[in-house]
């Protein structure tokens, strides 16, 4: 494993103020991916490649396509992926995930990009999931704000809170998925597609 390099990438990202997954969250997700034998992932929100490098280093054979719209972060991610010798398993693409199109199917869709657009991104990319697909959404805790209806929320945060709350509730109540919300790291939503029952 690229442990030393991963630590360097993480520390550099924290130093540069680049948002990356919290330790507890990334640790949980990498084990979940390995235990679920996930072999392909579409990640929205590469940043500098930290999460994709951790996942690909930990989960044998996992292939990742990851989208990032910030050119500087994308450039850094490409550099980090090369340093980790993972160019054959991680493909970083410099694109706006809200307008990009992919034909490929993936076993896992990992939403860790623009939080306010999670629902929109889910709707764009749900057709890219395989029949046994899993959706993982990071950062659904929002410092506990979402779980505390009594809390006073600053006016500018209200639209984001409403969007995040609605999306989380929709996913948790959607019968097409077996979903759980975990207060791990920055809050994770894990939704596994249920098998569709045919009437034939
Ligand atoms: C929380 S960070 C990703 C962290 C990364 N997954 C990790 O843990 O190492 C979210 C990233 O999404 C990117 N982003 C925001 N809007 C985007 C969009 N429309 N398309 C693609 N990437 C976007 C941001 O530039 C930022 O780097």
Descriptive report:
The protein has a single domain (about 5-195), classed as 3-Layer(aba) Sandwich (Rossmann fold). The chain is about 35% helix and about 20% strand. The radius of gyration is 17 Å and the shape is globular. The chain has a seven-stranded mixed sheet, sandwiched between helices. The model has no long low-confidence stretch (mean pLDDT about 95). The protein contains six helices and seven strands; from the N terminus they run ααβαβαββαβαββ. The protein is an alpha/beta fold. The protein has helices spanning about 5-15, 25-35, 50-60, 70-85, 120-125, 160-175, and strands at about 40-45, 65-70, 90-95, 105-110, 130-140, 175-180, 190-195. The longest helix is centred in the C-terminal third of the chain and has 16 residues, at about 160-175. α3 links the parallel β1 and β2 (about 65-70). S-adenosylmethionine binds next to α3 and β2.
Write a short abstract of this structure.
The protein is α/β, with parallel strands linked by helices. It has helices at 3-16, 23-35, 50-58, 71-83, 118-125, 158-173; strands spanning 40-44, 63-68, 90-94, 106-111, 129-138, 177-182, 188-193. Strand 1, helix 3 and strand 2 form a beta-alpha-beta unit.
List keywords for this structure.
200 residues, single chain, globular, 7-stranded mixed β-sheet, alpha/beta, Rossmann fold, binds S-adenosylmethionine
Q: How would you summarize the topology of this molecule?
A:
Layout: H1 3-16, H2 23-35, E1 40-44, H3 50-58, E2 63-68, H4 71-83, E3 90-94, E4 106-111, H5 118-125, E5 129-138, H6 158-173, E6 177-182, E7 188-193
The structure holds S-adenosylmethionine.
């Amino acid at each position: 494993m690229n442990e030393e390099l991963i630590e360097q990438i993480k520390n550099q990202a924290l130093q540069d103020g680049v948002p990356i997954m919290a330790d507890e969250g990334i640790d949980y997700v990498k084990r979940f991916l390995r235990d679920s034998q996930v072999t392909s992932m579409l990640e929205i929100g590469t940043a500098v490649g930290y999460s994709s490098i951790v996942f690909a280093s930990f989960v044998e054979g996992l292939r990742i396509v990851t989208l990032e719209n910030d050119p500087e972060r994308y450039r850094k991610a490409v550099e980090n992926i090369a340093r980790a010798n993972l160019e054959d398993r991680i493909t970083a693409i410099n694109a706006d995930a809200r307008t990009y199109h992919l034909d490929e199917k993936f076993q896992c869709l990992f939403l860790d990009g623009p939080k306010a657009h999670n629902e929109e991104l889910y709707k764009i990319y749900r057709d890219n999931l395989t029949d046994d697909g899993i959706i993982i959404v990071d950062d659904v805790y929002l410092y506990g704000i979402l779980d505390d209806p009594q809390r006073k929320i600053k006016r500018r945060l209200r639209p984001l809170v409403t969007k995040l709350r609605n999306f989380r509730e929709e996913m948790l109540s959607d019968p097409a998925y077996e979903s759980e919300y975990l207060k791990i790291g920055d809050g994770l939503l894990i939704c596994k597609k249920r098998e569709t029952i045919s009437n034939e």
